[in-house]
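@channel sequence for tomorrow's demo:
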Amino acid sequence: MAKRALITGVCGQDGAYLSQLLLEKGYEVTGLDLAVDIGSCWRLCCLGVYDRITLVRADMTDGGALSEAVAGGKPDEIYNLAAHSAPGTSFQRPVECGEVTGMGFARLLEAARRGAPQAKIFQASTRELFGPGDGGLYNEERPFRPANPYAAAKLYAHWMAKIYRDSHGMYICNGIMFNHESPLRGIEFVTRKISDAAARISLGRGERLALGNTEAGVDWGYAPEYMQAAWLMLQQPEPDDYVIATGEAHSVGEFARRAFEIAGLDWAKYVDSDAGLLRPTDIVLQQGDYSRAEAKLGWRPQVKFDRLVEIMVEEDLSRRKRHLKGEKFPWDIIST
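C-alpha cells (generated this afternoon):
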C-alpha cells in the first residue's frame, strides 16, 4: 500500500517541490492551503503535479478543519510548511503571524495526537531562530535569539515539536532550514526579486532595481534539495532536529552582481539603495553547519551559490522571453 502524506502550505515553493518528490516515490499526497485554485497553485502547475494530488482548502487558524483533514486522511507522514514566511512583513502583522506560524502548528500537533498519533511529523523551522548572526557556523546546539515576530512564532512551534515529542512519544523532527531558493520562490523574496529584475532589465522591460541591505551575508541553498532533507528526516529510526544549510555565506550584493552578470549586465548601473526596504533588525552574517544531517541522513548540498543564481536567472529569462512571445503559462508575474 502506498504511503500517505499530508502537506500544509502545499502551494508554496517548498510544498510544490515536496509534492513532486513524494509523488515520484509513490506516495499519495494531500495538500492543505488557504487557496487551492489554479492561480494560487501556479507552482504545482509548473511542476505538473496540480492534478496529481488531493487539494483541501484549510486555514491554520481553524483547528476543526485541521482535525478533519488529519483524521480523515490518516497520513503516515505530515509536513508542516505553512507559515507567514516573510520576516520583514511580520513586524506589520505580528498577531496574525503568531496565529498561523506558531499556534497553527500547535493546532496541527493536537490534530495529529488525536487523529493520527502514528504519523511522523516534520516541522519547517528556520535559521531566523538564531537572530542576526555573528559570522560563525550555526549548529543545532546554538542558542536561539529570535529578532522578529516571524522568528518568535517559529520558536514557539519549534519548542512545541520538542515538547510533543518528549511528552507524547510522537515522532517529530525540526528541520532548521537556512535560506533556500529556486525559480519557484515568490517575487517578494529578495533573491527572486533580483533574478527577475535582471531578466526584465536585460530584455528592456525595466530600468532599475531597489534593494535594502546589500551587505547582509546569507547561507543560500537550493529548495528541492532541502525538501529531500525533510523527507530523509522522517525515514530515520528515531526523530531528531537538523540544521540544513550549505555552510557558505554570500551577500545580497554578491547575488545581485552575479545575477546581472548572467543576464549580461553590470549590476552597479541598475541597482539603487532604498533605506525604506531595511528591516528593523536584519541579518549580519549566518552560515549553517549541516554536519549532523550529513552524518545521520547522508545529506549534503549539491547546488552551491553560483549554480543557484544561474538556475534562477536562466528560468526568469526563459519566462520573460516566453511571455513576450505571447505564451500563457502558470507564473506569478504576468503583467510587467
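heads up for whoever presents: Residues 186-219+248-286+303-324 form a domain with the UDP-galactose 4-epimerase; domain 1 fold (CATH 3.90.25.10).
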